[in-house]
Here is the input.
Amino acid sequence: MVGVDREGCAGTTSAEAPLPELFKLLNRAFMQDPYPALAELQRERAAVPIENGGFRMWVITRYEDVRTILADPSLKRDLVKHRHAVVGQNLIDIERRPKLPRELRRSMLDQDGADHLRLRRTVSRFFSPSRLAALRPRIEAAADGLLDRIPLGEPVDLVARYARPLAVDCLSQLLGVPQWARERFPGWETAILTAPSKPAVEQAGRELMAFALEVIALKRAQPAEDLFSELVADTADGLGQDETISMITLLLIAGLEPVTAIGSGVLALLGHPGQLAKLLADPESMSDCVDEILRYETPFRMLTPRYTDHPIELDGVTIPAGELLLVSTGAANRDPARFADPERFDVGRCPRGHLGFSHGAHRCLGAELGRLETSVGLERLFARFPHARLAVEPGRARWRTGIFMRRLEELPVVLG
Ligand code: HEM
Here is the structure.
């Protein structure tokens, strides 16, 4: 294999058979461009074990397997309740394992079955079509205001100057994030998800938790017309304090995903001028274009872990019960068995069934809001600056490290 190295033996699980050796996937080349290594795995093996954050985890890359696994209700997310079943079996290096407060791990994304549904229902009305329609003018105005302030004719970082503040503004409006915190929470999100170091992850966890407690106190004292206020008021109706804290932090983190989609979209379109011209000639195709962006540059290389409570058989590979699974939606969305010529960015493709918003019970709750923000962000930018150009070679754009997310660190662009 070219892009994928192997290292020492992973040991054994509670099953009798010894596990295959661990794959070393997470090197610098993978962070910059994960697709060659993922394609190689996809061709060769249905699942491979790697080390991540001190744990053994199995990476699954083929579209059909990923979709089947995401739809399987017997697959668990709740690693707090079931930790005895998985921690001992999969922990390989305790030194590398960051410890986050338990209160941050009780969100809907961390729970299964009826508890997951109960939590999801608590906030789902905030994502109704009428609420989203009401947000559109606000997002458009925010986009225009940000574009007004970007200097023309010189390289600017479009992530810092446009994608991030746009997503922060929209999310803060929906959730009711106080003004003073708007600068701060994207930093915690970055640290938690891209793991620059174990102490930095743990510090970000403590700060997020302290912030959530401040939000709860603030919204109790001064309730307003926003999601956080209703969430705090609802606490009496069944959400535990730890679930409220986790819901607040999940929404702050998950709700910044449009930063990724807008950044990757601008890079893909400016890197493929023919595709940008096609989009500009037919602005109605924006919705398909957003889907193609989410397929071509899937915001998650891998989704955060699930675990199995029964052995899984995938094309000759047996994953024993109690193992951690990383499903690679990034790899699945480029599986040639599902999408013809998957390395080609094609805004006319209509990639139905792509997994950019995941699939199954945990499919993105904010998918329509994410689509709206991404569409508006791209529409307003290219309507005003159709001749924008990259100030970096497309292949040299800098991506964040960290196994889960595929987000640009920065995107130098010249407008005007
Ligand atoms: C283009 C933008 C977005 C993308 C690509 C995206 C992607 C995803 C993905 C892949 C998941 C599944 C994670 C997993 O299964 O491990 C997810 C879950 C979630 N997302 Fe999004 N997201 C976006 C925008 C948003 C926004 C704007 C919000 C909220 C304001 C949001 C809230 C959520 C929530 C609450 C979940 C957890 C759902 C559950 O566990 O049932 N997302 N998102």
Summary: The pocket of protoporphyrin IX containing FE is lined by residues 108-109, 120, 171, 250-251, 254-255, 257-258, 261, 294, 299-300, 303-304, 356-358, 362, 364-366, 369-370, 374 (CB under 6 Å). The first strand starts at residue 5 and ends at 6. Confidence is low (pLDDT under 50) at residues 1-16. The chain is about 45% helix and 10% strand.
